[in-house]
Design goal:
Strand order of the largest sheet: 5-4-6-8-7
Number of domains: 2
Number of strands: 8
Number of helices: 0
Strand content: 35-45%
Structural class: mainly beta
Length: about 130
C-alpha cells in the first residue's frame, strides 16, 4: 500500500535520527545481518474512524495501545489487553478537548474515552467495541 493511501496506518516522518515518542509516535529499527548497519524509521500513527485498536481496561480507566490496529471482531483479545476499542471519530482538537467533545448528537449517552494525539492537535474518540 502506498504511504499516501487513505487507509495507511502509519507515516514515516524521518529516518536515522532521534525519534520522538508520545501518544501515536514511535519508531522501528532494523539491523542488517550482512552489513551491521542499523536503519531507524520514525513513525506517526494515522487514525481512522471505524477502525479498532487494543486497550487495557482497569476499572473506569483504559490504556490504549496507540500503535495497534486490530480487526474489530477479533476474538479472543490478545493478552495483555482486554478490550477492543472502536474509533468513533478523529477530530481537530478544540481547546480543552475531552471525551465530552466526542458526543455525536445532543443527548448522546454513549461512554467515550478520548486521547489527544499529534502533539495535542487531534482528538481521538473511542468506545468499547460492542459488535455489530
Amino acid at each position: 500500500m502506498s504511504c499516501a493511501d487513505e487507509q495507511a496506518l502509519v507515516r514515516v516522518t524521518a529516518t536515522d535520527t532521534a525519534c520522538p515518542t508520545s501518544y501515536g509516535k514511535s519508531y522501528w529499527s532494523y539491523r542488517s545481518a550482512s552489513t551491521g548497519d542499523t536503519t531507524k524509521l520514525c513513525l506517526t500513527r494515522i487514525y481512522h474512524a471505524t477502525y479498532c485498536m487494543l486497550g487495557q481496561q482497569s476499572g473506569d480507566s483504559i490504556s490504549l495501545a496507540m500503535m495497534t490496529a486490530v480487526a474489530c471482531r477479533r476474538e479472543p483479545v490478545p493478552a495483555p489487553y482486554n478490550q477492543i476499542m472502536h474509533i468513533t471519530g478523529v477530530y481537530r482538537a478544540p481547546a480543552g478537548a475531552n471525551a465530552n467533545n466526542c458526543r455525536r448528537a445532543a443527548g448522546d449517552q454513549t461512554r467515550y474515552w478520548s486521547w489527544l494525539v499529534d502533539d495535542g492537535a487531534t482528538l481521538l474518540c473511542t468506545t468499547i467495541y460492542q459488535g455489530g
